[in-house]
Amino acid sequence: MATYELLGVGNALVDVLCNVDDSFLHEHGLVKGSMQLVDESEANNLVSTMSTSHRASGGSCANSMAGFASLGGRGAFIGKLKNDSAGKAFQADMKMLGCSFAAVPSEQGLPTGMCLVFVTPDAQRTMCTHLGTAALLAPDDLNETVISGSKIIYMEGYLFDQPVAQEAMVRAAGVANRAGGKVALTLSDSFCVERHRDAFVELIESNTDILFANEDEFKSLYQVENLEQAVQLSRGKCDVICVTRGERGAVIISDSETIEVKSEAVERLIDTTGAGDQFAAGFLFGLCKDKDLTASARIGAIAAAEVIGHYGARPEKDLAELVAGRLG
Which of 44, 218, 222, 291 has its CA 20 to 30 A from that of 230? Predict the structure, then answer.
């Protein structure tokens, strides 16, 4: 039996969430719904404008690992932190969730990274990220014993912005493949796809078994205008592709079939932050428990519906209880 069912490899960040209106985004030149990278000075300037904010450990892949732990999965996470107050808080949060932190924090260099999340009244989130040391995850930071002992490793596209981190992701995928594990990848953001399309395609076609993307990211990857064209171009590139479509649910693509799964009903939409992260957590949990694609996607939809009903990208309710109550 694998030591871990799921290993996340991604940016270790501290999230800072704040409610704003559209005029705030316009004033600061921010594109609604986007994620953009900022330097330390820009991040500090934006933080100074936040009247009320909520702080929590974050990062896309780490948020998925929080959901996976809430579902009852055995998980671990690799990301680059500095041994500063934020880095220590991140590690403590992961431990409290029941997810092992499988990396050694740095003693020098850039600080632990930060993601500023601005939530508008329509529940859209706009993110400005200062990656700090998170972006510099290197092959030497990888715990290959943990990678080899994991059933599935799950990597985030946000990590692709630095060549050294790309090298680490390719190394991790290779180690997992050689050990007989599966490799899952999320494209993370359309802007990531535009910056690194060729590198993504190479990693997907050579070392990826399970791909996650929203509809815009998926169409951008294949530079097409509609989902049907992207489906035709993608089929056979990896074992399973999950395309999330917000309130329209998700499309699951394999070599032999295309499955449409409806979204779960939400009493009140509060904040879409983390919906994709939690869908991935639920879907991967299903696969780790040998569920079929439809059942796995249902678990993903339940996890996504929980997180958009409140602020923040991590579940507040026990996902294992929610899933048991809805699926039996």
Answer: 291
